[in-house]
């Protein structure tokens, strides 16, 4: 389990996160939702120790996060970070050389799943295929937790659907996933848990199945209540 406990982050005088807390379980998809600029990426960066936090703790499987924790967790940014002149095959080779937990078998599975051509250069990929190649490079790592920043952002509906399918496939297995989004519609059915954020605080944290079964509400219903109420 990833436990984010009361983290506070300031950029200059601006407090972006104000004691944000939530948990994300292994084997589940947890979605951080909030409008642009609410601090979703900053939370993922804080978990990855890419940005220092002022207060609070982050625990992974009960232990305070430390250097060794990053063998268990990976961050998939919202855009591919490989050099544009690389082919997908070269990008995969780079990952294999760099990370000892690279899983070539899963990478090949993902190539087929996303119908990507490994001889294509990154610079020539459509937005949708670039997003898929980006996910492939992260999902092929053998880690217990995957953090994904806006994996559905700016791509067409068919690519979104194909990316959504990967979440219910064997390619995710029993790993824990945290994704950020401001568009919930396409992916509501995939999500186990939702964390609603606003003004640097956690407004509400809930399990989708519970609100569906107990209150007959969708995630969007709860969002309307919380954000407009
Ligand atoms: N390095 C930085 N220096 C100063 N301010 C920053 C920095 N990074 C982020 N911010 C500010 O912190 C706030 C939260 O940014 P963040 O990128 O975490 O939001 P977000 O919810 O991920 O937004 P989006 O949906 O647009 O990606 C924003 O107001 C942003 O301008």
TrEMBL record:
Keywords: ATP-binding, Nucleotide-binding, Transport. Gene3D superfamilies: P-loop containing nucleotide triphosphate hydrolases (3.40.50.300). InterPro entries: AAA+_ATPase (IPR003593), ABC_transporter-like_ATP-bd (IPR003439), ABC_transporter-like_CS (IPR017871), ABC_Transporter_VariousFunc (IPR051782), P-loop_NTPase (IPR027417). It comes from the Bacteria. Residues 2-224 form the ABC transporter domain. SMART domains: AAA (SM00382). The keyword Metal-binding does not apply. One of its GO terms (molecular function) is ATP binding. The keyword ATP-binding applies. SUPFAM superfamilies: P-loop containing nucleoside triphosphate hydrolases (SSF52540). Pfam families: ABC_tran. PANTHER family: ABC TRANSPORTER ATP-BINDING PROTEIN ALBC-RELATED. This is ABC transporter ATP-binding protein. The lineage of its organism: Bacteria, Bacillati, Bacillota, Bacilli, Bacillales.
């Amino acid at each position: 389990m990833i436990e984010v406990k009361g983290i506070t982050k300031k950029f200059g005088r601006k407090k972006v996160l104000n004691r944000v807390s939530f948990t994300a379980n292994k084997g589940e998809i947890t979605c951080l939702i909030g409008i642009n600029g609410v601090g979703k990426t900053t939370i993922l960066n804080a978990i990855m120790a890419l940005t220092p936090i002022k207060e609070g703790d982050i625990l992974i499987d009960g232990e305070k996060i430390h250097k060794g924790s990053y063998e268990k967790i990976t961050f998939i940014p919202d855009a591919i970070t490989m050099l544009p002149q690389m082919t997908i095959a070269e990008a995969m080779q780079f990952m294999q050389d760099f990370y000892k937990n690279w899983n070539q078998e899963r990478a090949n599975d993902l190539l087929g799943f996303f119908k990507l051509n490994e001889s294509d250069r990154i610079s020539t990929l459509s937005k949708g295929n670039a997003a898929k190649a980006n996910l492939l490079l992260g999902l092929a790592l053998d880690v217990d937790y995957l953090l994904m920043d806006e994996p559905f952002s700016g791509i067409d509906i068919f690519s979104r659907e194909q990316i959504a399918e990967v979440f219910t496939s064997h390619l995710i297995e029993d790993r824990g996933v945290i994704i950020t989004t401001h568009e919930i519609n396409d992916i509501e059915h995939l999500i186990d848990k939702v964390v609603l954020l606003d003004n640097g605080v956690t407004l509400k944290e809930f399990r989708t199945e519970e609100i569906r079964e107990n209150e007959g509400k969708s995630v969007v219903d709860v969002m309307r209540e919380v954000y407009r109420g």
